[in-house]
Amino acid sequence: MSNLRIFCGVVAVLALFSGSTVNAKQQSSSPPEPAVLEQLYGDGIDFDVFLANADQRKELWQTNWLKSEPSDDWVSRARSLAGNYRLLAVTIDACSDSVNTIPYIAGLVKHVDQLELQIVNPRIGRVIMDTYRTPDGRGATPTVVILDENFGVAGVWVERPLPLQDWWISNPKISVRNKVQRKQSWYDWDAGAHTIREIVELLEAADVNSGR
């Protein structure tokens, strides 16, 4: 338990000093054309359908969805957006990062009229995963693309919150099993807070970059 407290404390400090909250990524190629992204978005399903059909990690999906209510501050900031945005998430129910992040994103979207969310599986969304990779060069789930009104890419969020990603990549000598256990402990402690913060700040940056 003491190791868990130390880990959570270290990651919390990383969050305070991490600078940009934009989820770090490598872009391996040009963004997909808006027409391609519009088609992918149309092929997606909404979160309620995804949740109802989830077979893997079903209990954790349900648990995180039930506690996904965002704070009033984040809802207020998201409702202040000048633009309308579509979030296209590439994910799969078996993914340990998706189950700890996507329900909270869906919880935010539920409260903000300017936002919509659709989900596609990795087979359909492979072009997105291949374009927007993790800092260590992997295509990963979840990958969330923020689309503007014209289906242009206005922002991207990849795999997991930045402080957790930094910790994961910078500790290659820790066994994968140990890292997975500690990662889940961090997610349980964080309860979606960093995910929502990073998504809202990406949306606000999209507003600024569009000149609104």
Short description:
The protein is an alpha+beta fold. The chain has helices at 2-17, 34-42, 47-53, 58-66, 72-79, 102-110, 126-131, 162-169, 176-190, 193-209, and strands at residues 26-27, 85-90, 115-120, 132-133, 143-147, 153-158.
User: In angstroms, what is the radius of gyration?
Assistant: 16 Å
Name of the level-1 CATH class: Alpha Beta
Q: Count every beta strand, where a strand is a DSSP E run of 2 or more residues.
A: 6
The number of helical segments is 10
Overall pLDDT metric: 90
Molecular shape: globular
How many structural domains in the coordinates?
A: 1
Taking the sheet with the most strands, its summary is:
4 strands, mixed
Proportion of helical residues:
40-55%
CATH superfamily: Glutaredoxin
Elements, N to C (H/E): HEHHHHEHEHEEEHHH
CATH architecture label name: 3-Layer(aba) Sandwich
Oligomeric grouping of the chains: single chain
Q: How much beta, percentage-wise?
A: 5-15%
From the N-terminal CA to the C-terminal CA, the straight-line distance is 47 Å
Structural class, please? alpha+beta
